[in-house]
Amino acid sequence: MIAAQDLHTEFQFPQEAESQLSSDTDLEDPDGKNAKTGKGLAAKKGKKALGDKAKGGGAGRVTGPGWVNGHHQENGMENMTLFEVVKMGKSATQSVVDDWIEAYKHDRDTTLLDLINFFIQCSGCKGAVSGEMFRHMQNSEIIRKMTEEFDEDSGDYPLTLSGPQWKKFRINFCDFIAVLVRQCQYSIIYDEYMMDTIISLLTGLSDSQVRAFRHTSTLAAMKLMTALVNVALNLSINMDNTQRQYEAERNKVIAKRANDRLELLLQKRKELQENQDEIENMMNAIFKGVFVHRYRDAIAEIRAICIEEIGVWMKLYSDAFLNDSYLKYVGWTMHDKQGEVRLKCLTALQGLFYNRELSTRLELFTSRFKDRIVSMTLDKEYDVAVQAIKLLTLVLQSSDEVLTAEDCESVYHLVYSAHRPIAVAAGEFLFKKLFSHRGPEEDGLPRRGRQSLNGSLIKTTVFFFLESELHEHGAYLVDSLWECASELLKDWETMISLLLDEPMPGEEALNDRQETALVEIMLCAIRQACECHPPVGRGTGKRVLTAKEKKTQLDDRTRVTEMFAVALPLLLAKYCVDIDKVTNLLQIPKFFDLDIYTTGRLEKHLDALLRQIWEVVDKHTDTEVLEACSTTYHYLCNEEFTIFNRVDIARSQLLDELVDKFNRLLEDFLQEGEEPDEDDAYQVLSTLKKITTFHNAHDLTKWDLFTSNYRLLNTGLQNGDMPEQIVVHAMQCTHYIILWHLAKVSDGTSVKGDMVTLRKQMRAFCLMCQRYINTINNAVKEQAFTILCDLLLIFSHQIMSSGREQLESLVYTPDSSLQAELLNFILDHVFIDQDDDNSTDGQQDDEASKIEALHKRRNLLAAYCKLIIYNVVEINTGADIFKQYMRYYNDYGDIIKETMSKTRQIDKIQCAKTLILSLQKLFNEMLSDLGFNFDRSSSAFCGIKELARRFSLTFGLDQLKTREAIAMLHKDGIEFAFKEPSPQGEGSPPLNLAFLDILSEFSSKLIRQDKRTVHMYLERFMTFQMALQREDCWLPLISYRNSLQAGADDDTMSVISGISSRGSTVRSKKSKPATASKRKLPEGEHFWCSLNSSSSSDAVWMNREQNVQTPVMMHSPHLTSTVLRDPKKMRPEDSFTATFTMPADRRGSGLMEDDEEPIVEDVMMSSEDRLEDINEGMDFDTMDIDLPASKNRRERTELKPDYFDPSSIMDDSVLNVSMF
């Protein structure tokens, strides 16, 4: 297409300025007769002086109407630059361009200078090109000068600024360029002056290292190219028309041929051809000078602009651009690392494939890049994946032979995607592929019924559903097809016909598996039509329906009711013994409009439905079927509808029969002296299971089932030979009995004496469950444990909340023995290895069984943790749970972490004591396993220390909130470390001294003042000889003291990790006189008591604390009896509470003390590409960090990066600031 020379990137203007500009507007020359022909961009010579006269143009500063001194004037208002006019957007772009053209005709140099400055200002540059610069400086020199004047303080420029004004500016900017070329297309763009200058400027700016210049000029150049493509297209059309006119005139007989017209047409064609060549030269210059370099720019937005515009060119002027020379750029860029660029590639190709005529010319491109497009359906950017699927749909429509079966199958499975836009796009692809092709034999088929076209399409849907082997995801398949095939999926009449009608001769009937799938699809379609929202996992919630959608929903619900009120009893009668079909069919009534039973005179069909449900209950013992029957009765028994009495009578009759049968069977089953056989046990179990299932949704208290169930449980406990399923369902039924009884008592509908009866029954049942926890059978024990935890939670002290003080007598608090039994059950049945779990009855090798067993254990742990959270059992019982945090992190880490978080909200101090207690338990277990001479580098000790570090991270960064809790944690830890004397005798370290190494993990959570106080409390347990020891066995004490002294006097608050070297130097600190602190004490400061000034020992330790910073006890002769006293003989008044103090906050004289500069600094990277690469390589989750509101820099400098280990489990208060 284009074969001109490359454009020079310097401002070069023709020396002669004798363009014959017409006084008329530039829009009145559709045939290009008045166009000034030239020699193209390669023929430019010199630069015209700004002050020279232009023929017919007057002096250099003469302006046209609407333009005053190079500035636009609007309604007599203040003069504005072209940039300001476009930014304001108050004037129509057409009028602004017309005014500029008129001014250009009078003084093109000045006006063109304004246009140059317009592009400079649109880039955000504060500088301007002066007339002197315009005359004497080259293009590169001008750009260099503008770069120097660019404001580097901010990286923002108009195209990147946010806000509605700047979004509108981008639109106005693009419109201005398009309108400018359109208005100038008949003469001015051919004057070899304006376009040459603009193209040269934009080419130079697009090569700038300044992003703003490069971005803005690339956008302008691409829009300029698009406008030129439109001009070239118009010229091509005019040339074709002129050629046809010439051929028609020449083919006339000589007598009728007009020679002058032939000459005129030849001249016109020649002029159009010259103009076409000129436009091609301009487009060639832009393409080679800008596009070829910028489509691979480092900035993704610039690359996206190039790809978006080349797609427009190929669509507008396909004869010139729709070939492999240009398509290759789109194909290459589909591998771009940025999603927005890949997205532009796909949308550009969609515009081409949408046109059938253009799609036939894309065969070579499709064969080359088809695999890439197919792979993009799995793109990590959801928007890109959606557009890739839509593109493949267009490719499929253009030709059935392009995509192979493997290509289609890679899209088919996406209908089950959790991301709804992807699923919907894949559903449309599936619909186009499987359902849109009709043969000639299908044109005469009926619209509805088994023999209709929809009948075959529904069968195809069923076949696809079964072949996908994802039978539990029918709702997702229906949702994916809903937008494109809702009419097909709502053809319930055809579905019913396929299920009930006999097949025609020669027709292949559906087998059992296919009928099951059809019933599921039918149910999912009914649910989608009546609920009008996608299935779980595909939507953020129920959206507000429009009036039209609400009307459609009501109409569909009416159709469902009218159709299935008649058909459902027939379907249940046919498939009465099929569990899967019956379970799905019984869910349909909950979508009925029950008023239609009365208004439509369908009562006989209601009776038929109730009879069929009775039959289902009588024939089935499967839990899912029975629950579906119970739920259906619950929905139909609605007192708001007139059918209530009819349904209630049927329900009562059914329950009467079940209860009578159960009591009769129970008497025979529990007869003394007779061995119950398996048939009797099965009859009792099946009847009990039905009663239990119905009791879940219906109130059966009037049948007084507690006595019979309690008798059954008691007998099973005494004899020990009761079948486990009977015991499990008897427990569940009794649980429902108590809950329904409580509901009646709570809402005030009970009679006198019900409260006492409920209290007796509840306590008797709790004792029964407690006894069953100690039985042998796992299923029975787990059921008893779960029910007991639920009852303890329900009948805890919280039952009196919300004004229900009258229920105080029902409160049941577990005693210590019951709490111990519950905890032991958790330790024995939850915290076990996968191989030790025998609950799956020999199916441990089955992966599904492992998952099910783990799910069951998680439920057991959650049930117990709720008792801790709601303060039903003592918080310190959680120590045995918390100590398992690291070992069972993958299985129960989320549950344990949430439990710790909730307990901290209840009582921070007690939670901290529980955490340290869990560490102490682990430490004691390690001692019992390894002995007191264990290696501190052993995996067991390192594991305890790592757990302590994790616990420390859960306290967050606000040290003031957790101050008291951390202090008590250190107190308990110190006491534990010195609790037991050394088994090796005097002079050896205490037995638990190594625990101080674990305790040091919490030292960073102490504020500066508290470190001193904790250090003083530690020294109460130390002797003078302990302080002088340097053997390895004393290193935990040295390390812990270092962690407490680090930052106690140093404003930098550095955290000393590990063990300091023995050769550390001693620094004496010259302290200033203490000054009164201006900071108010936080709440809860009453916890901190002042030191007794009369205590000589405390005064000595305070004095020594101010002067000594190493663990070495330097010249300190003033030893008192406090430090020499045996720790076990300490007086109560020397307790930890009396020791803690709030010393006066002394301000240092250094700059660090009062410096309020934020400690988190922004780091600018020199290359954005490197930053993007770094972000793409990050595997760990980002963390949000809220800095505490404190002006004391010394406290905030404790926030070391070491504590932000991404694998650590942190408190919610820590997880809030992106690292990048």
How would you describe this protein?
A hairpin with a 2-residue loop joins strand 1 (67-68) and strand 2 (71-72). The protein has a two-stranded antiparallel ribbon. The chain is 57% helix and 0% strand. It has 1220 residues and is an all-alpha fold.
**CA distance, first residue to last residue:** 48 Å
Oligomeric description of these chains: single chain
User: Which band does the percent of strand residues land in?
Assistant: under 5%
Weakly predicted, low-confidence segments: 1-65, 74-78, 840-844, 1050-1220
* Approximate helicity band: 55-70%
Instruction: Please give the count of helices.
Output: 50
Residue-averaged pLDDT, rounded?
A: 78
The coarse overall form would be flat
Biggest beta sheet summary = 2 strands, antiparallel
Subcellular location: Nucleus; Chromosome; Chromosome, Centromere
Coiled coil: 232-285
Family: Belongs to the SCC3 family.
GO molecular function: chromatin binding
